[in-house]
Design goal:
β5, α1 and β6 form a beta-alpha-beta unit. An eight-stranded mixed sheet has the order 1-4-6-5-7-8-9-10, sandwiched between helices. Strands 2-3 form a two-stranded antiparallel ribbon. It has helices at 66-78, 99-113, 128-135, 187-195, 198-201, 223-234, 263-274; strands spanning 6-9, 16-19, 31-36, 38-42, 51-55, 82-87, 121-126, 161-164, 209-214, 239-244. The protein is α/β, with parallel strands linked by helices and 278 residues long. The chain contains seven helices and ten strands.
Amino acid sequence: MLGAQTVWPLWADAASVTFDDGTAAPDVAIVTAVNQPAVLGFHPLVPNGRAMLVIGGGGYTALMAGREGVQVARWLTGLGYHAFVLLHRFPNAANGVAAPLDDAREAMRLIRAHGLASAGLGVVGLSSGGHLAACLAAAYPDDWTPPVSRHPDQATRPDVLVIGYAPVSTNAAGRTIVADKPPLPPVEKQAMYDRLQPDAQLLPSPPPAFIVYAGNDPVVPIENARRLYAAWQATGGAADLHIFADAPHGFALDTRGQPVALWPMLCAAWLRQTGFLD
C-alpha cells in the first residue's frame, strides 16, 4: 500500500481504507475513509536505531497520506529513521470521538513492540496530524475508556515531536480567536477538539519539540504556535519555534522556492542537536 515495505493493522487482521483516487501516485494520495486503521512502514537503507511515526493532516475528515505522509516518510528514511505513516480513523458517528487518539497511541505501542525503535521513537505531525501528535504528550481524558491494547506494556509517549501548522486549540469551544466561529462538522470532530486541547493538557517535562508554522496561515491561526510554545515552556520542556512570515497552509515538503522550504534542513539540524540523529 502506497509503496510501503510493511503494512501493520492496529486492531484487526487487515487494514481497510478508501482512497479519493485509487490511481493516484503514492506521493499525492488522499485517504477519504478508514474502516480499519494501520501504519505503513518505510525502511531506511542504513538504520540509525530510531523510528518516527508520521501523522498527516486533512482536518480529521481526510488524510493527506501522500504529501504529509509518504513524502515525509521518505525524507525521514533518508536520515536513517524507520518511518511509519499512520492511517487513523476519523471522529464521526461510526468511530466515536476518541478514535484518532486511540489509533495513534496503539501505533506507538506497535512500533515499539516490533523493536525498530531501540534508540527512540519520535512523531512528526502536520496540520490536524500535528494536533494529534501533540495529544500524545498530553493527558489522556479521565472520562474516556481506552480500548484494550495488543501491546499494553509499551509506552505511548514520544521521545521527540515535530509539529507543523497544527490547530492545537483554536477550534475548541471558548478558545477560538475567530469571532462567532461555528462548530465544526461532524459533531464528534468538534467534541474531540473541545476535549483534546494539548496546550492546556500537556504533561510535565514534555519531550523536545520542533514547532513550525506560517505567520499568515489563513486556515490555522498563528496563535496556535504561540500557545503550544508557551505550554512547553510552562511545563519544563524544550522547544524550537520557527515562524515563517509568508507561507501557505499545508506547506509540507514541496513548497519550493520559498524560505519555508528550508524547514526540513532546520529540523534535521535540531534533531542532531537533541541527539536524536547521528
